[in-house]
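To the wet lab folks,

You asked to see what we're planning to order before we commit. Fair enough. Below is the target structure as tokens, and below that is the sequence we designed to fit it. If anything looks off to you, flag it before the synthesis order goes out.
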């Protein structure tokens, strides 16, 4: 597998979000960002900063995962935090990797625990195909080719000046 440049994918995703939403993001009536813990939350944080948004939400999907009994709760996972009302809002759900669609399903269930949004649209850094559910992203940093027996993991690095950069690496799947 060739190297996947997460920073190139990030810039493409940022450009797509700017083109798709323009000035419709933020404010009392605008669309809001909500990132899925953890990679999606990192992305939402950086997108909010680059788009000059006042806030973003974090969605913890642990309790809605269909493999919860197998994986359990992760101690480092923060609880869902949505600094906006969900009812009637247009939500841009952000995640790092779109694969089977199961995490997105869990995130939708978690969001609906907080209210009924007007719409939920998906933005992902990397789409690796392999869908098990009918899920598609409106904004995609890029399509990536990852072996079925590997997991694509996003890491963030601090450059020492308060800026983060994203790096992808692969790990053997732990199914």
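Sequence we intend to order:
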């Amino acid at each position: 597998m060739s190297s996947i440049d997460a920073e190139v994918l990030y810039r493409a995703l940022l450009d797509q979000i700017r083109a798709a939403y323009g000035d419709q993001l933020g404010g009392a009536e605008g669309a809001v960002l909500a990132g899925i813990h953890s990679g999606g939350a990192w992305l939402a944080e950086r997108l909010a900063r680059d788009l000059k948004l006042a806030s973003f939400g974090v969605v913890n999907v642990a309790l809605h995962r269909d493999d919860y009994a197998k994986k359990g709760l992760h101690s480092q996972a923060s609880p869902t935090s949505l600094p906006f009302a969900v009812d009637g809002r247009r939500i841009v759900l952000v995640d790092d990797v779109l694969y089977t669609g199961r995490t997105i399903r869990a995130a939708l269930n978690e969001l609906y625990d907080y209210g009924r949004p007007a719409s939920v649209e998906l933005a992902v850094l990397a789409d690796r195909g392999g869908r098990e559910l009918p899920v598609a992203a409106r904004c995609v940093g890029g399509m990536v080719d990852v072996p079925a027996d590997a997991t694509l993991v996003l890491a963030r690095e601090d450059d020492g000046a308060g800026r983060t950069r994203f790096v992808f690496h692969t790990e053997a799947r732990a199914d």
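Structural context that might help your review: Strands lie at 32-36, 57-59, 90-98, 119-127, 139-143, 150-158, 164-172. The helical segments are 6-21, 39-50, 68-71, 102-113.

Thanks,
Computational group
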